[in-house]
Every structure is written in C-alpha cells, then in structure tokens.
Fold this sequence. Notes:
five-stranded parallel beta sheet
Amino acid sequence: xxxxxxxxxxxxxxxxxxxxxxxxxxxxxxxxxxxxxxxxxxxxxxxxxxxxxxxxxxxxxxxxxxxxxxxxxxxxxxxxxxxxxxxxxxxxxxxxxxxxxxxxxxxxxxxxxxxxxxxxxxxxxxxxxxxxxxxxxxxxxxxxxxxxxxxxxxxxxxxxxxxxxxxxxxxxxxxxxxxxxxxxxxxxxxxxxxxxxxxxxxxxxxxxxxxxxxxxxxxxxxxxxxxxxxxxxxxxxxxxxxxxxxxxxxxxxxxxxxxxxxxxxxxxxxxxxxxxxxxxxxxxxxxxxxxxxxxxxxxxxxxxxxxxxxxxxxxxxxxxxxxxxxxxxxxxxxxxxxxxxxxxxxxxxxxxxxxxxxxxxxxxxxxxxxxxxxxxxxxxxxxxxxxxxxxxxxxxxxxxxxxxxxxxxxxxxxxxxxxxxxxxxxxxxxxxxxxxxxxxxxxxxxxxxxxxxxxx
Length: 456
C-alpha cells in the first residue's frame, strides 16, 4: 500500500520521506511557536539521548511480569487480550498499598493526560504494557508501529517531565489531588526526538496539528520509562470500568463491535453503529459496545463530562439489548491512521472482536489553513492492512445521508434513486443550538440537545 496519509503531507507512519515546503505563514507561525517553547522540538536528525549516568537494570515494560491472570473474565469474552494476558497492576489490600507508598521518596501530581495513561496502564487497557515506555521501546514504536518483540502498537505511551532532579531508580508516588493513584519506579530518562516522533506518529511535525502542538507545548523536556504499581483508580464524574469488568458483561459466543467517538452521538452516528451489526463481516447476533473517550481531546471539543451526560440520556432513550455503553479515560492525539490502531488495540483488551472505522477517524485540520491532515479513508485503509496482525476486524462505516423519502440511506443509494437529501452542517447546528432554535429530530436526539443547551 502507498502512503496512508493524505497527499497534503505524503508521510507514511513507518517511512520518512521528504517534507513538502511550508508556506510563509506556516513557517513563521512554527518558528514563533517553537521559539516560545524553548526549542520544544529537538533537531530533526538528532538521535534520542539518554540522560543520567546510569540506567536501572530491569525487565522491559512490556515483558512478561507477575500479573493477575483473569481466567474467569477471559472466559466471558470471545476476544483474547493483546499479547495474550490481560494485565492488572492494581494492588488489592490496604497492606500492599501502604507498603508500596512507603517505598516512595517523592510525590508528583499527574496532569490530566498522564492520569489517563496511568489508569490505562494499571487496569490493562494498554496490555501488554506494565509501565511507561523506556527509550528503546519508545523509539521502536515510533519507527515501526510495534513493540521491540514485534507486537503491533499504535502510539508511544510516555511519561514526560521537566524535573531535572528525577532520576532512574527513583520510586515516586503519583497523585491526583489528594488521592494516591500509583507508584512508578523510573528505569531511564531520555531526551526524545520530538520532531521525529511527530513526523512518524502524526504524519507531520507542523505545530498546526493539535497532536504535534501537544507534544511541543504540553509535554515536558524529558521522557522517563518506569514500572507502574496501581493503588487506586481515579474518581471521575463518569464511571470507567476496567477491561476485566467490561469483559464480565460480554457474551463469549458472539462478535462484539466497538464504536469509538469523542463527540455527542447524533442520529447519523446511531444509525451507523446499529447498522454495523448487519455488515457481512459481523457474525449473527453480534452486539455493539459504544465506548466513547471522555478524557482530554482538542481544545474546541465538548468537555468530557458534558459528553458523558449526553451518552447517558441517549442510552435511556434508545434502550437496546444489542447495544452496550461504557466509557474510556483516554486522551486523544488526533493521530489519524496510527491512532485508529491504538483504539483497536485498546478495544481488543476490552473484549471487542470488531471495530468501526469512520471516515477520517481521529483526523484533524490545520489550525492555520483548515486543511485536513489525512484523507477520508486513510484510517480505514491502514486498519484494513493491520487488522489481521492485530486480531481485530475493522468494519468500515457507512456513508449515510438523510433523505425526505426514505430517512437514512447510503449516499450511493440516494444518488442512484434520485432521493432528496437534507443537510445540516456542524457549524449551522452549533449556531442553532446557541440561538435556541429548534433542531430537526432527523439530525439530533431531543434528549441530547437538551443536555447540550443546559451545559452551554
């Protein structure tokens, strides 16, 4: 397959090619922003550098470790966890937790993105990881979309810091406010090549891309590898079951189709994921797991708590035995094709056998020109290529339109039959929402609209 990225960027996630020239406006903005972040990107051809005189001798963060084996839960789901074993790093007794905390010599407050990553490591959603990636693992994932042992992995999972005093060998208590979340035993410290990371993972190092901007301006100067020991799950406004808990609720004899979203579900989305069960790739009596991400995302997205409220009212309004709803504390990267792989891998750990890939999934636009960074079907193509290796079957989403005569049908059918389409852009919808205008029910559910207005 040729490059999975839109011709605008022409970057393959595992093969670097020449960067196209930037416009004067793009170049000026990039220079100003990078200068403002004190050279947040290292030189493009500079190698990633290890920091400190020593590196703690330890097993890799993805190597087999003594984790709890969830045979009961695994028997309750058709899908095998990624890497074969569902990781669980959360200590169960108060005595174990107290002993783990007693070993710590320092405390750190987790950022919202770090909190999501720590939770997904310790509850097994990032299986087979048992900690944050060390330098060699990080570089291998960036370059090869795989762990050093060859197991496919979409995006690096890293612990970032600006703290000069943190060193390999430190055991640190990770906190969310007053709540103890986990301990981490740091194994190494290194200066990442952020420009290469962005080029490989996002297809561009332009800071007009929200993911590249996050890496440049939000993440710290250093990355550190480290082994996680879980203490307590975060307290959130929305409940986030662990993979083991979700697996207990799933049937073991039918396909489970995951639907990922980061926005409120409107009529077209609902039609899309319910009709996915009729796809020939999905076995008889399959079910849908609607699994929205409720963590940090793009700056202009609706807050996670508000999104959660819209999902809850919709779950009640559209009660369906073949549709399940759960929530994922994941921070979006808007990395297009490579993030599609990350989402598929996570849902595999939650017990899903299939994954709906929407048009321009996890896509993003330039904050300067508004141009798309990825083609509409880049994520679908990459997921189709990597699906067999990953062990998850991608289900391409239908391109649905609403027609006056037949309601929702595919765009091809509407064109062939000459049906009259009705359209409402996202921009117009938001204007009508703010203005208190009636929103057509063919576009959005009344219950969802009410929540959005109450939380505007």
